[in-house]
Design a protein that fits this description.
Blueprint: H1 2-20, E1 25-27, E2 36-38, H2 41-55, H3 60-67, H4 71-78, H5 86-95
Antiparallel strand pairs: 1-2
Helix pairs in contact: 3-4
Length: 105
């Protein structure tokens, strides 16, 4: 139940920030109904993760086993059909030997 609560709270906090205009959203193309997503930064980060996985010659199934996920979940993330939580994304990166750093712009 903890994950459900955490995910719900994260979603609500993000919704508030989107409503305030602090998080930009864009229309996702080729969807059956109008669908808005957070800017393409997330897609860029996921694409980088996919490139790292492929450079290491790891399959989605192997990455899933390394992180305790299902291969289908990794596939949905890589196809940008599912937005991973920051914790889940960091866990995937960590399994690949990478991490996230915050830099002042």
């Amino acid at each position: 139940m903890g994950n459900f609560f955490d995910d719900t709270m994260q979603g609500l906090l993000e919704a508030v920030e989107i409503e305030k205009g602090n998080i930009p959203i864009v229309l996702k193309e080729k969807m059956p109904a109008p669908t808005f997503i957070v800017s393409n930064k997330e897609k860029e980060l996921v694409d980088q993760m996919v490139n790292i996985r492929k450079e290491q010659n790891l399959s989605q199934k192997q990455l899933a086993e390394m992180t305790g996920n299902r291969q289908q979940a990794i596939s949905r993330i890589e196809k940008n059909e599912h937005s991973p939580s920051l914790q889940a994304f960091c866990n995937l990166l960590s399994a690949l030997g990478y991490g996230i750093a915050i830099e002042k712009m």
